[in-house]
Amino acid sequence: MPEKDLLPSKKDGNLPCVDIRENDLLAISADVLNTLLHDHTTGQNIFWATHDYESLGSEYGYYSPIMPELITGDMGMVIQPRVFKSKENQSYRSKDMAEVFTPSWVCNAQNNLIDEAWFGYKDVFNFEDKKNHTWKTRTERIKFPQNKTWKDYVRATRMEITCGEAPYLASRYDTTTGKFIPISDRIGMLDRKLRIVSENTNTSGEWLDFAQSAYKNTYGYEWQGDNLLLAREALLYSFIEYYHAKFGKLPLEKSINYIAYIISWNIWQMDGLKGVVPDSCRNGMKEKVMTLFGEEEQIVNCTGCQHEDIRKHNGIYCLIRDWGVKDTKTGENNRKIRYIDLIKR
């Protein structure tokens, strides 16, 4: 695919193309789009988990999987960032799903606090202008404390909970205004990692190795399927844009595919209060169970939901990938663990 079609295009001196088109992803390769739609817990696709699209037909129902053909071709504009949705729709989602998107200057301020704690000094990546809600990027090479290296920073675990379109991770645009943010001024946690990688590597191979490490150590989860896809797309395009900024060319398709694969594991669909696939708990449902008297139909309720116990839900507990630990059987770095098993009792 030509670079001019894949990268954001300039118009009147601005960079307005914040909406990543699923048709463009399909043009990179069908595998990329399929990967971004995959759910590793269920083995199926992520699902809509919202009633917003039901007027388009039964395939857009709350529990329906998001299939490529539903969001490409003539339907290529179905999923759009929140800023492009109607005010009525934004208000409904804020009220019904507690969907609140954070301005970039707030994301920057909070991410700066994380880095201040990690580095041991203030204003690591930029200087905040609290009065005008802006920031000025530090252009000099980032300095590291005596007992830490740039590789430690890239490998440090970061996660955005209930991530929406993931503005704390990848700040391609301000989710509240739609304003495109140039690479040089981005403030997401993943953006900072990729900046560090670009500052400390020279060859494409070395850059790719550490960029992959940055993605493997960056996590986020979201309930609604459309937001989840937007978040995954933002992280994928950030990879493409940072690589292009560093080397003046696009990464190979196989490299894009692998980053998409990492993202599909690390940015996943989950009910954050329960640790399960959204609405997968069974409450008041008739199910056939085996008893002393044979198979009987009984009403099944979720103990976890009844007692607000995250470890006793009967829903589908979400799996994530532990990239740094080898599977004892295969010897490969592919151990899968339940998200809730990371939570201390």
What report would you give on this structure?
This protein is of the alpha/beta class. Helix content is 34%, strand content 12%. The protein has helices spanning 3-6, 22-28, 30-36, 87-97, 104-119, 150-155, 189-200, 204-216, 225-247, 253-266, 303-307, and strands spanning 126-129, 134-137, 158-160, 218-222, 267-269, 285-291, 294-300, 319-322, 335-338. Strands 3-4-5 form a three-stranded parallel β-sheet. It has a two-stranded antiparallel sheet with strand order 1-2. Strand 6 (285-291) and strand 7 form a beta hairpin. Helix 3 packs parallel to helix 10, helix 7 (189-200) packs antiparallel against helix 8 (204-216) and helix 9 packs antiparallel against helix 10 (253-266). The longest helix is centred in the last third of the chain and has 23 residues, at 225-247. The radius of gyration is 21 Å and the shape is globular. Residues 9-16 have low confidence and may be disordered.
Q: What is this entry, summarized?
A:
This protein is of the alpha/beta class and 345 residues long. It is built from eleven helices and nine strands.
Task: Set out the fold topology.
Blueprint lengths: L2 H4 L15 H7 L1 H7 L50 H11 L6 H16 L6 E4 L4 E4 L12 H6 L2 E3 L28 H12 L3 H13 L1 E5 L2 H23 L5 H14 E3 L15 E7 L2 E7 L2 H5 L11 E4 L12 E4 L7
Helix pairs in contact: 2-3, 3-10, 7-8, 7-9, 8-10, 9-10
